[in-house]
Amino acid sequence: MELFEKSSFLPPLAERVRPKNLDEIVGQRHLLSNDSPFRKLVEKRKLHSLIFWGPPGTGKTTLARIIAEMSNANFIPFSAVDTTINEVKRAIKLAEKDLKYYKRQTIIFIDEIHHFNKAQQDALLPYVEKGKIILICATTENPSFEIIPPLLSRLKVYILNPLSIDEIKEILKRAINHPNGLKDFDIEISEEVLEHIAHISNGDARVALNILELATLSSEKDKNGKRIIKIEEIDKLLERKVLHFDKKGEEFYNLISAFIKSVRGSDADAGLYWLARMLEAGCDPLYIARRLIILASEDIGNADPMALVVATSAKEACEFVGMPECSLALAQATIYLALAPKSNAVYLAYNKAKEDALTTYNEPVPLHLRNPVTKLMEKFGYGKDYKYPHNYPEGRVEQDYLPPLLKGKRYYFPTNRGFEGKHYRKKSG
């Protein structure tokens, strides 16, 4: 039987290789390591209603199923996208009977709980409150905004993180060798191809497995009967323009260099172009976000303090929503940083301070700057003659804050650009 004929009778690969126990789950070590409180609760069958919050394909449904299996509880899954609250209520009535007559708990699992409106969520409250069911919910949205406070207060929130490149690769390798996966399909796939799939799946195991299965189904056998999976074929299948580059090679560093220099040079259009080149070639968006954070302090600094806030927010967006959506957050940050006033005064100031710190590290802290925590310290002069700035006009007072050896030394020389020029220049002069 040919590959397509085999596959037509099979569930999707992601379903066929779904983990059956906690040890088979890849990732989420903060929840699943042997000494984690969450794992101990599950193993001891100390079940409670909860919500799994995280991006798609990180194991929310799998965890819910395994918890039910380990607790020997009934498991009734729903998707809030296409389920009415009356359907859930009917399932809850059956759960109540099982608990009353057979002492067996029921886990009601509601995926995409954020699709339930306020009234639908309200209807769940009495059952959760009375402990008639164990409610496990899953959402990709922030529960603080999408779940009504009375219900949220009765659910313990557990965060699931996007899977790393290495974790996605591990999942793909397991699928290739899994007896229910692709073991019988004679696949040959390189580490480079696995990494490519991991990058374009953006932390979503389901997407990665779907790509691998699609590539396998469309591949042709070579003369040795092997099905060789290639990057070019994957990109064609996904209708992607092939822009990939060696992430450890010269071209990668050329692109990031062009990107940073464009933003530093206040060319937003060039910054956007190089950003798109990198992202469409599979560059890790978090790497770009980190470089923007560095640039915000190094090349903008106090000329626009909001630059650091914008860059940090872009990193958080990358961590939470992943690609392709986070590309817009990076584009927004790129434009903001490119058009912000520039200053490297913070960068120069810290390097000068660091140079002195390394050569005068034995200089004691002046007594008046030390905190007299005990009576003995006070007796030895700790804090003596310290001038508390708030006791003086404008909350400022002249006194020596450096070791005597460095008295009068200046490090920070604000520019006259942006916020720095308006607010810092006269104060530091």
UniProtKB/TrEMBL annotation:
InterPro entries per record: AAA+_ATPase, AAA_assoc_2, AAA_ATPase_RarA/MGS1/WRNIP1, ATPase_AAA_core, DNA_pol3_clamp-load_cplx_C, MgsA_C, P-loop_NTPase
SUPFAM superfamilies xref list: P-loop containing nucleoside triphosphate hydrolases (SSF52540), post-AAA+ oligomerization domain-like (SSF48019)
Pfam families in the record: AAA (PF00004), AAA_assoc_2 (PF16193), MgsA_C (PF12002)
CDD domains to which the protein is assigned, alphabetical: AAA, HLD_clamp_RarA
Any one GO molecular-function label of the UniProt entry: single-stranded DNA helicase activity
Domain named AAA+ ATPase: residues: 46-163
Keywords from the UniProt entry: ATP-binding, DNA replication, Nucleotide-binding
Cross-referenced Gene3D superfamilies: 1.10.8.60, 1.20.272.10, DNA polymerase III clamp loader subunits, C-terminal domain, P-loop containing nucleotide triphosphate hydrolases
Methyltransferase as UniProt keyword: no
GO biological process, one term: DNA-templated DNA replication
Function: DNA-dependent ATPase that plays important roles in cellular responses to stalled DNA replication processes.
Family to which the UniProt record says this protein belongs: Belongs to the AAA ATPase family. RarA/MGS1/WRNIP1 subfamily.
Name of the molecule in the record: Replication-associated recombination protein A
